[in-house]
Design a protein that fits this description.
2 domains, 4 strands, about 325 residues
Length: about 325
């Protein structure tokens, strides 16, 4: 019998098979340009997942995730262009820088909740944005930093590099998939259950012995890690880093993607990000004001699907399963002597 769990598993396998086949399938169906778009969607989906971890699972709405995305970008760019680091040290530097700044800002931010938390995350993002703009000799400011790609690895005569489009795509796919798998494991673990308990009622969670401040800080740093990985990948993807990606409007886009896709669901950010980037790429070629359509879609989804597109799908799937079970029970009762 096709239960919701079986359907979800089949869809996940089909989605995974599609992503693996993209470099060969998409150029035949559309054109090669869309392979890069799908790679970009995966990176931004990971960024939206960092918002989702905070808002969907622990109840903290952050408009400052662009800060950690930017630190991931600049860690890579400065590591390669200024410090002369190779691929893996630069990648590590971007991630460590994001985790470090998330820890420092999180120590102060997670003491607050509701709109106070949202405001302080914006403040931190603005502080470091203006700092990055002001130290132009180091960061390049709004002009950014361009850098040449170092080889990812070199074994014998085989060299892997982001300059190879297929290697770039599969490296992004593997990294993003690993991050989503780790997030899935965390959500299903006792730590994830503690996050949800705090989201639902932080006072009750404290009364049963959970350290609310510590758990919020852990979630905040984990979200910074996800945003940092996304930023580091985007730097290698574009061979570029800019202070403009640290501005809070970038965080705002991720918030919209996560909410429209389905906050509190693992793949909600993927759905929301895919929807809006595909709309942007299709409409922007014909109309420069494509943001109007993006806004209209966001409003309609929030009105008619408050739990997001994935939440709506899960609800419909649950209703279908319930009707199917009721019908099978009635059929069984009729056939029994």
């Amino acid at each position: 019998m096709m239960t919701p769990a079986v359907i979800a598993r089949v869809m996940l396998i089909a989605f995974g098979a599609f992503l693996v086949a993209v470099p060969w399938l998409i150029p035949v169906i559309l054109n090669k340009f869309w392979v890069s778009v799908i790679a970009e969607i995966m990176i931004w989906s990971l960024f939206a997942a960092s918002v989702n971890l905070l808002f969907g699972y622990i109840g903290l709405l952050s408009f400052g995730q662009a800060l950690y995305f930017g630190f991931g970008m600049y860690g890579v760019a400065i590591g390669v262009a200024t410090l002369g680091l190779s691929f893996w040290p630069a990648f590590g530097l971007g991630i460590v820088a994001s985790i470090a700044i998330a820890l420092v800002s999180g120590i102060f931010a997670v003491r607050l909740t509701w709109h106070y938390f949202a405001i302080i995350t914006v403040v931190f993002s603005l502080i470091f944005y203006f700092f990055a703009v002001s130290v132009k000799p180091l960061t390049g400011g709004d002009d950014g930093i361009n850098f040449a790609l170092p080889p990812t690895f070199s074994i014998g005569g085989v060299t892997g590099s982001f300059s190879d489009a297929n290697f770039q795509y599969f490296f992004i796919l593997a990294t993003v998939a690993l991050c989503f798998f780790l997030m899935h494991r965390v959500i299903r673990s006792p730590l994830g259950k503690a996050f949800v308990a705090i989201r639902d009622n932080d006072v009750r969670a404290a009364l049963i012995g959970l350290n609310v401040y510590q758990l919020r800080l852990i979630a905040f740093v984990m979200a910074g890690f996800l945003a940092g990985v996304a930023g580091a990948l985007f730097a290698f993807f574009g061979r570029y880093a800019s202070a403009s990606y640290m501005f809070y409007h970038v965080s705002g886009e991720a918030v919209v993607w996560a909410i429209v896709g389905g906050a509190g669901t693992l793949f909600g950010p993927v759905v929301g990000t895919t929807l809006f980037i595909v709309i942007r790429e299709i409409v922007s070629t014909h109309w420069e004001h494509h943001a109007f359509i993006v806004g209209a879609v966001a409003i309609l989804v929030v009105i008619f699907a408050p739990k997001g597109l994935v939440g709506l799908w899960n609800a419909e799937l649950a209703r279908w399963s319930e009707r199917t079970n009721d019908a099978s029970v009635k059929t069984k009762l009729r056939t029994e002597p």
